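Ticket #4471: structure output looks truncated?

Reporter: J.K.
Steps to reproduce: submitted the chain below (412 residues) through the standard prediction queue, then opened the result file.
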Amino acid sequence: MSKQHSIVSSSSSGLMGPVNNFLERWIPSAMTFALALTLIVALLAVFLTDTSAVDTVRHWGNGLSGILAFMTQMCLILLLGHILANTGPVRKVLIALARIPSRPASAYTFIFVVSAVLCFFVWGLGLIAGAVLAREVAVQGRERGMKLHFPLLVAAGYSGFIVWHMGYSGSGPLTAATEGSFLSKSLGGQIVPVSETIFAPWNLIATVLVIVVCGLLFWLVAPKDEARIYELPADVGSEQTANIDYDIVTPGDRMDASRILVFLFGLALLAYLVIHFSRGGSITLDIVNWSLLTLVLLFSKNVIELIHLTRNAASSVGEILLQFPLYAGILGIMKESGLIVLFSDAFVSVATAQTFGVLSFLSAGIVNFFVPSGGGQFAVQGPIMLDAAQKLGVDPSVAIMAVSRRHEHENR
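Returned output as attached by the reporter:
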């Protein structure tokens, strides 16, 4: 066990200690949940519909490749966000921001707000930057004589994730805004523009309220008793951007070490984005990824650094590559067996147009326990809720954001 992990664990001896111990002992990994949910859905298809076991397996196998494009988009958001957070310019900004908090109570709120703002724009960036900022605030606070509870700093950095699905890189609303996505059939071949979901006034107001309320909570729960504060170990210092050692011997080495190529392609991508938006182009998952790639290319020193940062970030996307085909297989079973219609009819029988949003929000919380992935959950539950919304005459944007928001609050 690492020193940081042992600090976090040792701080859970209070009221939430038994709960934390139970969850750590009994809750399996997201991969195990995905496998278990696949089995559950397959059994439901066999026993609740007229689908045979053979057909269920066939629907599952055919569905495994159903959301490969979506899976790639999710992987790229995390990969590029991880790379961007570790580029030199972004690291320097985070280190500079870490000097701002002057009092312990404000440090926790500050980290949360910065992380939440970054996650609103790009969750892959905010997730990594929040962790980096928590460490830097702990290090610099220690140097200035502030006693900071490191587990709470980490929690503040991670909790910014709570608003990611309400923002610029939210997988649910962006998938609904993309032509030809796996939600296209559920939306009747139409799209739901982000102006009706992410940038709708009610969503922006809700985002601000969530950040304000949660930021206030971090300020209120800041530990007052210094004896209960677990600081960052004294031997853990600031994690500066690593200098990559490389030899320039051949012409190929000189090209790899040149900044010109990556910078030119960064400018080319920037020009594409300007043209895209100037001609009325919309925000989609692809556009979010190309925005991230633009910044990565502009901020990277050269191809050598870019390759180094990519290798470090690659391990973060491994589970997504394995889990998302399983979610796609689940979706394939539900679509072909008729479970989607069965579930949506059951939902319609207890919901009304007025209660749809709240009930969708609550039901998504239950599903999120079994599908602890925002994109994965939307792939599984999105079509059901959209089908139910259509039958009740509810605006599809309500179904999209209800499922999205419940993931943020429950899973994180």
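Triage note (M.O.): checked the attachment and the full token line is present. Residues 323 and 362 are 24 Å apart (CA to CA).
Status: closed, working as intended.
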